[in-house]
Design brief:
The complex is a heterodimer. Chain A has helices spanning 3-25, 31-49, 51-61, 66-119. By secondary structure, chain A is mostly helical. Chain A folds into two domains: 1-49; 67-120. In chain A, helix 2 (31-49) crosses helix 3 (51-61) and helix 3 (51-61) packs across helix 4 (66-119). The longest helix of chain A has 54 residues, at 66-119. The radius of gyration of chain A is 24 Å and the shape is elongated. In chain A, 12% of the residues are buried. By secondary structure, chain B is of the alpha/beta class. Chain B has one domain: Spore Coat Polysaccharide Biosynthesis Protein SpsA, Chain A (Alpha-Beta Complex), CATH 3.90.550. Helices cover 43% and strands 15% of the residues of chain B. Chain B has a seven-stranded mixed beta sheet with strand order 3-2-1-4-6-5-7, with helices on both faces. In chain B, helix 2 (41-47) links the parallel strand 2 and strand 3. Chain B starts with a strand and ends with a helix. The chains are: A mainly alpha, B alpha/beta. The A-B interface holds A 90, 93-94, 96-98, 100-101, 103-105, 107-108 and B 33, 52-57, 59, 63, 66-67, 70-71, 74, 164.
């Protein structure tokens, strides 16, 4: 990995750290979800500071350019994260259906009560 | 048998009043579920004091029928019949569906092709493919897997009420056949859609629907 790539990774990970922490403080991001992003930034930091780890992994996997190992790991992590988001969407979808049903039922009961009251 | 007719309605201002009046004549309980219609449907429902739910957000057909099953479950109905709000399913055939549920079937489907031959349109080729897949998976023969007119007994209501993956009719039917529920098809006639636009008018949606169904039948249900 070239020095400029390492510097780039270092700056990017520091930038990501800053944005995540700021988002949590400004109450834009739930702190539970920030953890995974912080770990992500930490990984880029490790890559920038200790590229030897990635040389070792590249050798082991038979990848000639260590930068491709960086791409590979990042892509795999993105897949994992996106999949997690899809699971969350499915869960929220279920919750929305249940809540919608509850709201609609309550509204129906309220309308019926109001009508009864008007008739009296 | 305590029966509820569930009628999903999305922009059905032309048909919903007549359909509901027809159903009331048969004396069954019914529930219209208005899925955020943008036309006059909500006004018609309110003015006629039809028994209905107004959903605050648009859930789509699968979510709407789920809401219907939840309502049936909460109110202890023993049988639910799903009927389209556009008047495609004539209420005349409801009694024969209920009859079969009373005879002990868990799931009764109103099929267009029990006694009649299936035509060769694009849509029916899709239907044949689904029949074949269900036959291969469960060993049982079905004639109209995409029919939306169906009656559910109590066991099936509970099942469908709690699970997120009974989106469409064919794979739900496949699941029931594969898991030992008793399923019966009854001959019904359906009318051509008189108003509104079919979901399958869009070819991409048709392909997407078929892919979902095939995957679901082959790998999941």
């Amino acid at each position: 990995m070239s020095t400029s790539l390492r510097i780039g990774l270092l700056l990017a990970s520091l930038g990501v750290f800053g944005v995540i922490i700021a988002s949590v403080i400004k109450k834009k991001l739930n702190i539970r979800y920030s953890i995974v992003w912080l770990l992500w930034a930490l990984l880029s930091l490790v890559m920038a500071v200790f590229p030897e780890t990635f040389y070792a992994i590249s050798d082991f996997l038979g990848i000639q350019l260590p930068v491709n190992t960086v791409f590979l790991i990042m892509t795999a992590l993105l897949y994992a994260l996106t999949f997690y988001v899809y699971i969350m969407i499915s869960k929220h979808n279920e919750e929305i259906i249940k809540l919608t049903y509850e709201v609609a039922t309550l509204k129906k009961e309220l309308d019926e009560l109001k009508q009864k009251k008007n008739e009296e | 048998m305590k029966t509820l007719i569930v009628i999903p309605a999305f922009n059905e201002q032309e048909s919903i009043a007549n359909l509901t009046k027809e159903i009331t004549e048969y004396g069954y309980d019914y529930l219209i579920i208005n899925d955020c219609s943008t036309d006059n449907t909500p006004r018609i429902l309110d003015e006629n004091h039809f028994n209905h739910l107004d959903l605050p957000v648009n859930l789509g057909l699968a979510g709407v029928t789920r809401a219907g099953f939840m309502y049936a479950h909460d109110n202890n109905y023993e049988c639910v019949i799903c009927i389209d709000g556009d008047g495609q399913h004539p209420p005349v055939f409801m009694s024969s569906l209920i009859q079969e549920v009373e005879n002990g079937y868990d799931y009764v489907v109103g099929s267009r092709f029990v006694d009649k031959k299936k035509p060769f349109s694009m849509r029916m080729i899709g239907s044949r493919l689904l029949c074949l897949l269900i036959k291969l998976k469960t060993g049982k023969t079905v004639t109209d897997p995409t029919s939306g007119m169906r009656a559910l007994g109590r066991k099936v209501i509970e099942k469908f009420d709690e699970s997120m993956n009974f989106y469409a009719e064919p794979d739900a039917m496949c699941y029931l056949l594969h898991n030992g529920f008793s399923v019966k098809e009854v001959q019904v006639d359906m009318k051509e859609r008189e108003t509104g636009v079919s979901y399958f008018a869009n070819p991409f949606k048709s392909v997407y629907y078929m892919l979902c169904e095939i995957l679901s039948i082959v790998f999941i249900q």
